[in-house]
UniProtKB/TrEMBL annotation:
Native source organism of the sequence: Berryella wangjianweii
GO molecular function terms attached to this record: cyclic pyranopterin monophosphate synthase activity
UniProt xrefs under Pfam families: MoaC
Function in brief: Catalyzes the conversion of (8S)-3',8-cyclo-7,8-dihydroguanosine 5'-triphosphate to cyclic pyranopterin monophosphate (cPMP).
Enzyme active site: 137
Pathway: Cofactor biosynthesis; molybdopterin biosynthesis
Reaction equations catalysed: (8S)-3',8-cyclo-7,8-dihydroguanosine 5'-triphosphate = cyclic pyranopterin phosphate + diphosphate
Phylogenetic placement of the source organism: Bacteria, Bacillati, Actinomycetota, Coriobacteriia, Eggerthellales
A biological process from GO: Mo-molybdopterin cofactor biosynthetic process
Stored InterPro entries: MoaC, MoaC_bact/euk, MoaC_sf, MoCo_biosynth_MoaA/MoaC, Mopterin_CF_biosynth-C_dom
Protein name from the UniProt record: Cyclic pyranopterin monophosphate synthase
Binding partners and assembly: Homohexamer; trimer of dimers.
Enzyme class of the recorded protein, top EC level: lyase
Family: Belongs to the MoaC family.
Keywords, in A-Z order: Lyase, Molybdenum cofactor biosynthesis
Length: 167
């Protein structure tokens, strides 16, 4: 049975707060998150062949994801601003038959790192989310039915809780 955890962003009176991390030591922390945007195969072909009207979709999504990692604390109210030391976003086309559910689209893998007092999970998750949103924005004129999903943390390491990996 899993030990009951306290919500750290709620104080004794039930009010939200930003956690005070000032007494925590700096440690190296890395988080990896993923997302997937499914689409019509013809939309994927446009992206892969570089024929999207707005330009290089995957390059733009990578840059947007990195920018998002650096901006997570401006989007998420209780997220600490971090001096990110690493941000990488990979966007991989997924063709028919490459997944068990046979979805076609773009798989996004976002990695963020920091040496600091608190985690980097929100930055990696934000990067993956915004990279997927950017693909949607750049291709919505030809495929409004695209669907974003599977935004999730895959791995986090560092800090007091150490290593966590999705099973």
């Amino acid at each position: 049975m899993q030990q009951e955890q306290q919500l750290t962003h709620i104080d004794e009176q039930g009010d939200v707060r930003m956690v005070d991390v000032s007494a925590k030591p700096d440690t190296q922390r890395v988080a990896v998150a993923e997302g997937f945007i499914s689409m019509d195969p013809t939309t994927l072909d446009l992206i892969v062949e570089g024929r999207a009207a707005k330009g290089d979709v995957l390059a733009c999504a990578r840059v947007a994801g990195i920018m998002a990692a650096k901006s997570a604390s401006t989007l998420i109210p209780m997220c600490h601003p971090l001096n990110i030391t690493k941000a990488k976003v990979e966007c991989t086309p997924v063709h028919a038959g490459e997944r068990s559910d046979d979805l076609v689209g773009i798989h996004v893998l976002a990695t963020a790192g920091v040496t600091g007092k608190t985690g980097i999970e929100m930055e990696a998750l934000t990067a993956a989310s915004v990279a997927c949103l950017t693909v949607y924005d750049m291709c919505k004129a030809v495929d409004r039915g695209m669907q974003i999903g599977e935004i999730r943390l895959l791995r986090k390491e560092g800090g007091k809780s150490g290593l966590w990996e999705r099973a």
